[in-house]
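Lab notebook page, bench 4
Experiment: in silico fold of construct C2
Operator: M.H.
Input chain length: 514 residues
Purpose: comparison with the prior construct
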Amino acid sequence: MKPIRLIRGFLTVGFWTLASRILGFVREILILNYIGPGSTLDAFVAAFRLPNMFRRFFAEGAFNAAFVPMFSKKYEADDAAQKFANDAFNLLAASVLGLTALAMIFMPALVWATAEGFSGDERFDMTVGFGRIVFPYILFMSLAALFSGVLNATGRFAVAAAAPVLLNIIAVPALIIGAAVGGDVVMWLLWTIPIAGVAQLTLVWVATVRAGITIRPSLPRWTPDMSRMLRIAVPAALASGVMQINLVVGQIVASSTPGAVSWLFAADRLYQLPLGVVGIAVGIVLLPDLSRRLKAGDNDGARHAFSRAGEFSLFLTLPCAVAFLVIPLPMVSVLYERGATTADDSAAIAVALAIYGLGLPAFVLQKLLQPLFFAREDTKSPFRYAMVAMVVNAALAFGLEPYIEWLAPAVAASVAAWIMVLQLAIGARRYGEVARFDARLRSRVWRICLSAALMAAALYATALIIGPWFGLAGWRYIALLILIGIGVIVYFAASSVTGAFRFSDIRNAAKRSQ
């Protein structure tokens, strides 16, 4: 079997995703400093969500679930993989071009459907204008997702993982320059988005050519492979669509409260750091690896890969969730509270972050469990599960709004995520031992939980002692570094004592994955 180095892949994707998220933090800090929660930021968030929503629907949903497993198996069997990728590219390009044209024409209807609460105030017209600037981003990113899928399927993770960094590399200087010259900072930010999309597409396209796979634009061709891919992709796209509907439902509920869309956006960006670094890295690397191992009949290797991915996910995710629950306000105030962002904004963002923290392990576990289905080209089951989660999300978001107002979407999202994980776990049982954690991971789960609990106690006690420092402008950064440092030290020390983690595991897993 053509090898994918699993642990190296996790670390490569995780590293570049971490770099992107750190730069993303810098971007969000600058956005909250120069623009701040309010009408303009609400409008930007709603507008930027539109191309991202459809991108996940067309590219990350359909192509990760349908294109990557099919391409991986063709590449493994030397079965005209390049021709298949070329046909998929042209079909995707034509589809997204049509979608972009329709969206530009009917942008007011899209805004009304996704942010009804903006109707009748300045946010609506701003969102329509912003949306027409950023929506073409979907074309570049959807095509970039296809090239990234090709690179990932061939075991070349670095360039595909590094490409998203370009958005923040371009956006951060643009924000600083916009503020320095006294212009409209949000317009500087908006125009960087399509520019970054072109840069990302160019990067992965060139990397694919250098990998020996040449994809050229031409008229779409309808082939049996495209028909089969579409049959697999449609349920996956619908499943991703359901997840995006959850986001839209949350935005509709939050849009009735001025500033709430901005608060949820800021909290979302913070909890997306571990989700991106761990969950997305695991999902990106695990799917092609499982697909190729199953194609080669290596069930033992597939189970080992699944279990090590689970171990990697839980070990890094649980402490992050604990930190979001125990010290949300110190993190939020230090990272975001400056310029146009006030202490009241920080308090609101911190509450939302703590709620998202409850759902963080579930969001990551979804990324771990879905490849079990997608690797077998089963996209219908995740779609059915997503439909149930959507109903739960909508019922809670609208049902809780009269009682907890704009926080209802955060609660609904976290509960729906756990419902989705439960369904995926139960549904995967039919795949037998391949879909079950091995003895090593089962013996370590409780050790990881115990280590995270000890870290929580250390964070809570330390926060009580140094809490007054967070009120001092010059000391709050040092206080947060001390707090995080103590948490990391306690967690790794506890993990070593309890046996939750050993550094030799990485070396041994890397040798086995080669």
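Observations: DSSP finds 19 helices and no strands in the chain. The chain has one domain: 6-437.
Next step: discuss at group meeting.
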